[in-house]
């Protein structure tokens, strides 16, 4: 799916989180929103997911204006920074949650839900953990379950907020490759937020550098590395 | 009011309905009735209200309620800190039972507490007969009111101090000891000052509860005008005589005392939070 | 200075961060005595006085029966209303940002610092037969004061903050992310509440309901003002206890008191069990 962000702005009371920003994300791209904390990258991601609503501007999914569409109808797979797994549910129930929440008419039968969950567990390479609870999983396993849960609803796009933020260096590397593989297999347009320039440059097709609620530069990792367009980008990449 | 409260559009559903239910119930159950009291008092006129409050019998009742509540709260400050200390720091048989028992005054209906305390402290009661030998009358005197108010106020200081004591960093005490302070000095100069904001919050809560207390007091008080007649009882008496204006006047005075105490509690909590953040 | 060594040892036989044994024992003894005199003695006397006479007859008395029925009715109406209020208030306050939030929380806490008698007085002044609303209701055959609705309103006023107070700190601490995750997976608001929020707050909710239930059954001051104390009709258990006690019917009074005391003990036992087993899921433990 092709995403167009058209002059999106967001204010919280007196503070401006996003000055009007515009961005085109082509179908099937893997995009990194890169910037320091407070740069507005998470706000932008939450606006795309329907968790926040912009003060001005439009969000287009293909040719449809989704700016006023509710979070439920938007069907964006969202992976939260803290994963937000439901602690009182097993891994199976977590992943099945979105399918069971569908209205009766479109809800898959039980057997299909079970099949879909085990397919996803295989996709994240954790086929045997269905009966466990979130607090029995390692950080890396939790992250992958959160990803599987987001994929279960057959999302139109995938949004990840600092997906590797809470993990140690070794696990980080493994999961990066995992995300790349899943992106290649599903072909979903994927946007992730990170403050780690190395992560953004090594993983994404397209990097969007943000600062103070503005987009500083949009480009391929190579362009960002070789031709930083502003002093901020040059410093941030060098850091 | 709803429009002023409404947040910008949010993904979280249900603001309208939950805020609607909240404000409707709050208004119907709490705000409108209190408003009715304030309006009644205003219609009655400030001079007339003051005339009722300034009557010797009203004044005596308000002063009695406030004075004995303060004394009971002070007793509970000392005993409550001691109880919290013992419950948090020491391990002994029956600790769990003691801990649960602290909440009994809160769970036991006030009327039940009232008749039980009266029976205990009456001249022919278990405690009353012993005290009578010592020439000390408790039931139907101000001492009886004091006992009842100590009972209802008991949980407050314990429950505000307990969590602070439990989470207090032992290294502070160890540091004090390594610097050569005796145990007594450490307790007086390090531990007790840190407990003070929480303890004072507990005192204020106990005081607020005691000033308005009715059920546990009226049985043991004897209810002699000018001597052992508490302010809430005076309201009940005025209502029974259909003196709604006088009842409203005394009610307003008590409401004012409540607001002052509520303000004190909030300031104490801000103060204690600030002290913790600075630490 | 060889002679200082044994002295130093003697000092450090006791850990530097606790007290000597005799101090500890004295403090424990003081606490135990205080609790025995202040709390355990009144509790024992209730059961002793009830069992001293014919408590079975006292319980079979029609007025006692009617008082028990009325108290159960009042509780059955006011506690669920309170739970609903607590949940909606906590949802509005913890899931949204709006101006005046602090004021709203203060207003919800207000009944804690108002005397029960003053609360009853307020209700009489608003709904009494000589007021506009009250007079109209009486004329249409539905009196509020000196009738069931007044008793329910008084009970609601007194127990108003209990559930909300347990839920607000807990739900603030838990944040909004799990709910946002459920919504992003397509769940409706109600479904999100039922499958995600409710399981996370159920113990705190039960805790608040328990406290509010105990207080509702035992409320005296506020109910005394609005009930009219009509025997067999508007006399709740605590009101009946007062009437019986004032008529020197000690066994009858203490029998009803013992029933309420038993309920208080059950409440305390359940509350303690909740605190021991689900401490992590109760935000603020044990505050009165």
The overall number of domains of chain C is 2
Helix content of chain B: over 70%
What class do helices, strands and sheet pairing of chain C give? mainly alpha
Mean pLDDT of chain C: 89
Largest beta sheet of chain B, briefly? none
Say what the CATH topology of the largest domain in chain C is.
MetI-like fold
Q: How many H/I helical runs of chain B?
A: 14
What is the 3D form of chain C? globular
Architecture (CATH level 2) name of chain B:
Orthogonal Bundle
Query: Which secondary-structure class do the elements of chain B indicate?
Result: mainly alpha
Radius of gyration from the alpha-carbon trace of chain B, in angstroms: 23 Å
- The level-1 CATH class of the largest domain in chain C: Mainly Alpha
CATH architecture descriptor text of the largest domain in chain C? Orthogonal Bundle
The beta-strand count of chain C equals 0
Q: Secondary-structure element order of chain B, as H and E?
A: HHHHHHHHHHHHHH
Q: Provide the low-confidence segments of chain C as ranges.
A: 1-12, 284-288
Strand content of chain B: under 5%
Measured distance between first and last alpha carbons of chain B: 40 Å
Task: Provide the domain count of chain B.
Answer: 1
Q: Biggest interface pair, residues each?
A: B-C, 103 and 102 residues
Structure in words:
The complex is a heterotrimer of chains A (about 240), B (about 280) and C (about 290). With about 240 residues, chain A is an alpha/beta fold. Chain A contains nine helices and ten strands. In chain A, the strands form two sheets. Chain A has a six-stranded mixed sheet, sandwiched between helices. In chain A, strands 2-1-4-5 form a four-stranded antiparallel sheet, covered by helices on one side. The radius of gyration of chain A is 18 Å and the shape is globular. Chain B is mostly helical and about 280 residues long. Helices cover about 80% and strands about 0% of the residues of chain B. In chain B, helix 9 runs antiparallel to helix 12 and helix 10 packs antiparallel against helix 11. Chain C is globular and about 65 Å long. Chain C has two domains: about 35 residues; about 230 residues, MetI-like fold. The N terminus and C terminus of chain C are likely disordered. Classes of the chains: A alpha/beta (about 240), B mainly alpha (about 280), C mainly alpha (about 290). The interface between A and C is medium-sized, with 25 and 16 residues.
